[in-house]
């Protein structure tokens, strides 16, 4: 069934007036994989004016069970109590397999999602991971235009989704559990490559001392990786969503990071670098999607793959054949 959408001008006007149903419709357009909807979505995005004061864009990453949703619920409520309007979005790689997102799910943040000052929307669940990230980034821009001045983007702290989220936020928060060598492992795996802030979660009850110890260890480990001249030294905090401890300290850290970045120009430089990233990421991602959908490619792909598997053709010959079917003659472009 085709839903009718108001003209882009009208949608933009209502959206910027804070109309929630207009926001919902614009988000639906952005999430859609249909060409017509995508074109309309781009018209809407292009017409939006930048908020007078840029919103807080904060990424929150961590393995399942680390306490992301509990923190977002507590932090989100803390922020709405202080007059902020908070949108929660997610880049959830598992949404592509299951067709639904477990992150930014309303049932995981029941109190926050009931507040009129908050908006919780799960990850898009079709396309490629790159496409999901791109749409989440566009959803973030829509939420900001609808008056949400804080956008929290949740993701699991592994692989491509982490890079994607780091590339759409101003401040990237990595959550970690105390113990089990998680902190040292994090550094090894390069998980901390993107972190602007690190927080050890569940620092309450029996776990409080262990969390403090983990934070101390992590601080000293991090100081080895950070040059003394670095403009920003990544703070390592401890917090408890359940005991509501460390929440305002965490937000202070986010604000300090933003203030410093706005003073020394890193904030703007980062946003501009991100726009460049999204330009090329979008080109590459859409090329891939177009390639996968191309009828001639689809017609010959099974045969080409079988030939490469059996050794009749080399991988390069197979790739040449597929690219030629797509309309790219490698000999002509190289
Ligand atoms: P997520 O998978 O990263 O979103 O993690 P959840 O927020 O769902 O939390 C996973 C589990 O840890 C749940 O059983 C929570 O009740 C528990 N948990 C989350 N935050 C805290 C906390 O601050 N203290 C304690 N003790 N448990 C917590």
Explain this structure to me?
- The protein is of the alpha/beta class and 334 residues long.
- 56% of the residues lie in helices and 10% in strands.
- The chain is built from 15 helices and 7 strands.
- Strands 3-2-4-1-5-6-7 form a 7-stranded parallel sheet, sandwiched between helices.
- Helix 1 packs across helix 2, helix 7 runs parallel beside helix 8 and helix 13 runs antiparallel to helix 14.
- The longest helix is centred in the C-terminal third of the chain and has 28 residues.
- The site of guanosine-5'-diphosphate has 14 residues, from helix 4.
Provide tags for this entry:
single chain, 334 residues, binds guanosine-5'-diphosphate, seven-stranded parallel sheet, alpha/beta, 15 helices
């Amino acid at each position: 069934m085709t839903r009718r959408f108001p003209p882009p001008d009208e949608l933009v006007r209502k959206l910027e007036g804070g109309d929630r149903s207009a926001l919902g419709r614009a988000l639906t357009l952005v999430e859609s994989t249909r060409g017509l909807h995508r074109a309309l979505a781009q018209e809407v995005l292009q017409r939006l004016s930048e908020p007078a004061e840029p919103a807080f864009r904060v990424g929150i990453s961590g393995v399942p069970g680390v306490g992301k949703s509990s923190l977002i619920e507590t932090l989100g409520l803390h922020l709405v109590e202080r007059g902020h309007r908070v949108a929660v979005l997610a880049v959830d790689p598992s949404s592509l397999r299951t067709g639904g997102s477990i992150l930014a799910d309303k049932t995981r943040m029941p109190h926050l999602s009931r507040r009129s000052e908050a908006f919780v929307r799960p990850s898009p669940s079709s396309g490629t991971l790159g496409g999901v990230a791109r749409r989440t980034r566009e959803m973030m821009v829509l939420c900001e235009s609808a008056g949400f001045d804080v956008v929290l983007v949740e993701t699991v702290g592994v692989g491509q989704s982490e890079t994607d989220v780091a590339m759409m936020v101003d401040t990237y928060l990595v959550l970690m559990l105390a113990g089990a060598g998680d902190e040292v492992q994090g550094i090894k795996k390069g998980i901390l490559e993107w972190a602007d802030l690190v927080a050890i979660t569940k620092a309450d009850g029996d776990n409080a001392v262990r969390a403090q110890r983990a934070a101390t260890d992590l601080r000293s480990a991090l100081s080895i990786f950070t040059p003394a001249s670095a403009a920003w030294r990544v703070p390592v905090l401890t917090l408890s969503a359940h005991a509501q401890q460390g929440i305002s300290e965490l937000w202070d850290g986010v604000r300090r990071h933003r203030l410093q970045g706005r003073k020394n120009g890193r904030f703007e430089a980062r946003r501009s670098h991100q726009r460049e990233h999204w330009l090329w990421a979008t080109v590459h991602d859409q090329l891939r999607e177009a390639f996968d959908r191309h009828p001639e490619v689809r017609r010959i792909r099974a045969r080409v793959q079988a030939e490469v598997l059996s050794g009749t053709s080399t991988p390069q010959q197979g790739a040449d054949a597929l690219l030629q079917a797509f309309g790219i003659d490698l000999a002509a472009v190289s």
